[in-house]
Backbone:
């Protein structure tokens, strides 16, 4: 999950972040459902649209009739099928056709076959490192939200809605932001004791005699910045009804530790990061010679820290990660750091902590090494480092000249050549910060029928998972029985939480926030402090497993292993994933696969470690675990073999295994669920006009078209180093390589590329 300002996980979502998995990497926001707009299309424009499409489709049919692949495929069309000729189906058919490349052979490269047209007709915007079908939905969502946030404030607006409009207005008020330049930032730095590198410039005046590590460290955490040693309050994985103090290794200034550690591969990126630090310090008036000395030391220090962190691929074993200490034991194990002082500064004064207070330590070895390094490092370097990370995330909130320096860094890291439009950044920031306010979005775009239909599909997908579970030949009966109980106990969140429609409750939720018109910087800081405070205030409170941890205006889906909960925000319940008027096979290729994907997360290499109550405990027999690991290794090896055409890098099969397992399970379950439906309904099988494919083939085409994507080479590097999902091309190809159903539906011969001889199957 992204926090208000970009890279940091916000505290209120932190509790879920370790165990909550998203359907897709990257920004979680942005969408416009077409429902509202369909209603607005006039009868005349529909007629015009139909006439144009009919012409287009006729042309396409004529041109495609000649292609070899197409004539092969048409042989397997079900004779009994009829065509769906509603306006929605005609429009959908045109979109599907435009995205395809029918010259390609589906049995050789199904990604090119399904997405070739889309890839040809799109380019990557200058401010993006990649662009995908998801991006289109997210950009549309931004437009919808802009329309809502931009509306003039009305006397009839409740307090909460009025505030979101004020917050947005303060963000797009570029004139005021430019006039203030760096002043809000330097005032903050002074308040925090000064940024040493600035000398006696505004925001500087740092004095070593006043420095204390725990003071600065806890001040940072009070703004949601968990630096060097992360210490916070999380749901206790071994007893998910309560919370516990936790400590862990930190996030770094660059998204992956590899950027710091492999100069032969990422020297350019590391240099750009150093230039970024130095550039910002100089713009704030620091002496150039001092900047070189100080920032070189900061980078050397952060590189040592990066080297001490454990790679994410080595952190997938929940039992091994979970190390229970008492506060006293932790203080003895890591004597250089005063954890008690830190937690006492952040917890509510009513929460007393004693020597026996439990603390879960997710990185004992890192903690010992880092504490020694911190004790040996000059305070000036540590203060320079911590404040640099704070400055870095606040750069989007100050004037353009600082953002230009940031853009030079992104140019190297992501390959982008311009910064994102201010209004888009503002929409995302406000949506992240106050996501419940997006009831404005729900009211405009989400229909009650979507919720009911999704519920029904979830029931069918769960049944599908259980049928496959029952028939698998590698898990013993005892484990199967408990696995079925986990499925039955899986909860769901669809669309949005009902309470956001209640004026009183919505106002209550945000009662502690005051938005100052014309002072965006202060509004942002206030939100960060509030999130931190809320997080730490929950230590002694029971966990409410029904609480929503995401907003409705998000194009993504999630699974929370500690709640055993699947989540489908309103933002994803739109085409190409779902539409109430779409033929069933499209919905099953779209949201059906997504539902199956999220369900399967409960049984991937990490999710399977949590029981039906969301507790980390071994509930599988040893022999079933051994069988699972063999099959998971097959998936790891398979995906590690895939190379990205953009830069020749390979996928990290270990890092992406959980998502790959979920993709494979999700598509299979959804296809099986659709087959059952099809057997009982001629309506479900009606194909699309102008496309010579049957309903089952179209299910696979829609599945693939959800993932049409363009990457810059830098975008691929960043995705492979930091993402938990395989790049989209291989989310399609990798999943289908393992699918007997797909090979049969497209009649792929035994020696065709898409029909792998070795198929990896778990669920
Ligand atoms: Zn996932």
Residues:
């Amino acid at each position: 999950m992204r926090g208000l300002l970009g890279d940091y996980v916000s505290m209120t979502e932190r509790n879920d972040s370790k165990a909550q998995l998203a359907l897709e990497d990257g920004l979680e926001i942005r969408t416009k459902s077409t429902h509202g707009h369909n209603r607005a299309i006039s009868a005349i424009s529909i007629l015009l649209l139909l006439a144009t499409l009919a012409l287009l489709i006729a042309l396409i049919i004529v041109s495609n009739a000649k292609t070899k692949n197409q004539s092969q495929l048409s042989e397997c069309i079900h004779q009994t099928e009829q065509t769906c000729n509603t306006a929605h189906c005609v429009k959908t058919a045109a979109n599907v056709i435009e995205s395809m490349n029918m010259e390609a052979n589906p049995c050789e490269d199904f990604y090119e076959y399904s997405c070739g047209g889309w890839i040809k007709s799109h380019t990557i915007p200058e401010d993006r490192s990649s662009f995908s079908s998801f991006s289109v939905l997210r950009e549309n969502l931004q437009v919808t939200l802009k329309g809502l946030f931009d509306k003039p404030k009305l006397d009839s607006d409740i307090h909460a809605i009025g505030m979101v409009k004020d917050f947005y207005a303060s963000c797009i008020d570029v004139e005021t932001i430019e006039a203030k330049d760096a002043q809000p930032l330097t005032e903050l730095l002074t308040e925090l004791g000064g940024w040493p590198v600035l000398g006696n410039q505004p925001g500087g005046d740092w004095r070593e005699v006043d420095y204390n590590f725990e003071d600065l460290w806890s001040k940072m955490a009070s703004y949601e910045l968990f630096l060097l040693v992360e210490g916070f309050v999380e749901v206790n994985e071994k007893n998910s009804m309560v919370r516990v103090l936790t400590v862990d290794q930190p996030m770094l200034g660059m998204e992956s530790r590899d950027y710091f550690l492999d100069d032969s591969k990422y020297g350019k990126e590391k240099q750009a990061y150093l230039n970024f630090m130095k550039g910002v310090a100089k713009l704030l008036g620091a002496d150039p010679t001092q900047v070189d000395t100080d920032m070189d030391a900061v980078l050397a220090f952060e590189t040592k820290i990066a080297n001490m962190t454990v790679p994410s691929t080595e952190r997938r074993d929940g039992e091994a990660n979970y190390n229970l200490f008492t506060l006293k034991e932790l203080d003895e194990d890591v004597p250089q750091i005063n954890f008690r002082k830190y937690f006492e500064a952040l917890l509510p004064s009513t929460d007393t902590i004693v020597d026996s207070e439990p603390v879960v330590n997710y990185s004992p070895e890192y903690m010992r090494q880092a504490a020694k390094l911190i004790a040996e490092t000059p305070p000036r370097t540590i203060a320079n480092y911590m404040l640099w990370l704070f400055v870095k995330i606040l750069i989007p909130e100050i004037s353009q000249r600082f953002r230009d320096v940031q853009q030079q860094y992104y140019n190297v890291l992501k390959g982008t050549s311009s910064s994102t439009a201010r209004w888009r950044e503002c929409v995302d920031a406000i949506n992240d910060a106050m996501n419940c306010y997006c009831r404005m979005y729900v009211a405009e775009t989400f229909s009650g029928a979507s919720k009911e239909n999704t519920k029904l599909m979830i029931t069918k997908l769960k049944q599908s998972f259980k049928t496959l579970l029952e028939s698998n030949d590698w898990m013993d009966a005892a484990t199967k029985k408990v696995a079925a109980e986990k499925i039955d106990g899986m909860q769901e969140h669809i669309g949005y939480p009902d309470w956001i429609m209640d004026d009183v409750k919505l106002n209550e939720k945000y009662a502690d926030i005051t938005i100052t018109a014309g002072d965006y910087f202060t509004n942002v800081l206030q939100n960060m402090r509030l999130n931190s405070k809320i997080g730490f205030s929950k230590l002694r409170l029971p966990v409410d497993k029904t609480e929503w941890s995401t907003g409705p205006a998000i194009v993504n889906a999630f699974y929370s292993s500690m709640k055993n909960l699947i989540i489908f925000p309103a933002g994803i319940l739109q085409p190409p994933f779902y539409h109430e008027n779409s033929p069933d096979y499209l919905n099953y290729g779209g949201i059906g696969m997504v539902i199956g994907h999220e369900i399967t997360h409960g049984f991937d290499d990490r999710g399977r470690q949590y029981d039906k109550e969301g507790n980390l405990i071994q509930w599988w027999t040893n022999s079933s675990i051994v069988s699972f690991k063999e099959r998971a290794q097959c998936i790891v090896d398979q995906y590690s073999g895939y190379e990205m055409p953009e830069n020749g890098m390979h996928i990290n099969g270990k890092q992406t295994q959980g998502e790959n397992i979920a993709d494979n399970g999700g598509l299979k379950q959804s296809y099986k669920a659709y087959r059952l439906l099809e057997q009982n309904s001629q309506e479900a099988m009606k194909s699309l006009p102008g496309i010579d494919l049957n309903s089952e083939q179209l299910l696979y085409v829609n599945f693939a078209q959800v993932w049409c994507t363009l990457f810059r080479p830098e975008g691929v590097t960043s995705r492979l180093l930091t993402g938990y999902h395989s790049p989209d091309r291989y989310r399609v190809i990798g999943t289908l390589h393992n699918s007997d159903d797909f090979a049969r539906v497209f009649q792929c011969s035994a020696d065709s590329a898409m029909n792998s001889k070795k198929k990896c199957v778990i669920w």
